[in-house]
């Protein structure tokens, strides 16, 4: 009697797991087709205004691209001979796929 009850419980658990997984698989939505456009720009930093205007210039670029619908993705600094020369700023936005 105990063996039949144990087998029934195990069988019930297995059926429950299979049904739960199949429900999750069928409930998943297909990913929407979206394309992205990316743009990387170089923002030069003058030797004379490196400390004062570097961040301000970068903020101006962020504002300009954000207003145009772009999202900030990445920033890399460009250093040459130990001197900060500028920033590479990467932006992306969603566009209609062809």
Explain what this protein looks like in three dimensions.
This protein is of the alpha+beta class and 98 residues long. The chain has 2 domains: 1-30; 35-95, Alpha-Beta Plaits (2-Layer Sandwich), CATH 3.30.70. Helices cover 45% and strands 34% of the residues. Strands 1-3-2 form a 3-stranded antiparallel sheet, with helices on one face. A hairpin with a 2-residue loop joins β2 and β3. The longest helix is centred in the N-terminal third of the chain and has 26 residues, at 2-27. The protein is elongated, with a radius of gyration of 28 Å. The N and C termini lie far apart (65 Å).
From the structure above, extract its key features:
3-stranded antiparallel beta sheet, alpha+beta, 2 helices, 2 domains, elongated, Alpha-Beta Plaits
Rg from Cα: 28 Å
Mean pLDDT: 77
* CATH topology description of the largest domain: Alpha-Beta Plaits
Q: What number of structural domains do the residues give? A: 2
Residues in helices, as a percent range: 40-55%
Q: Low-confidence parts, pLDDT < 50 over ≥5 residues?
A: none
- Percentage of residues in DSSP E strands: 25-35%
- CATH class bucket of the largest domain: Alpha Beta
| Strand adjacency order, main sheet | 1-3-2
Biggest pleated-sheet summary: 3 strands, antiparallel
Helices and strands, in order, run as HEHEE
First-residue to last-residue Cα separation: 65 Å
Shape: elongated
- Strand runs, count: 3
Write the layout of secondary structure elements.
Blueprint (H helix, E strand, L loop, with lengths): L1 H26 L7 E10 L5 H18 L3 E10 L2 E13 L3
Antiparallel strand pairs: 1-3, 2-3
């Amino acid at each position: 009697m105990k063996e039949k009850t144990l087998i029934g419980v195990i069988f019930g658990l297995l059926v429950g797991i299979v049904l739960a997984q199949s429900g999750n698989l069928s409930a998943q939505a297909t990913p929407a087709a979206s394309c992205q456009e990316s743009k990387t720009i170089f923002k030069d930093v003058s030797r004379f205004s490196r400390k004062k205007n570097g961040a301000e210039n970068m903020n101006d670029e962020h504002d300009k691209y954000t207003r145009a619908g772009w999202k900030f993705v990445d920033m890399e600094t460009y250093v040459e001979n130990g001197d900060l020369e500028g920033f590479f700023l990467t932006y992306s936005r969603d566009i209609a796929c062809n």
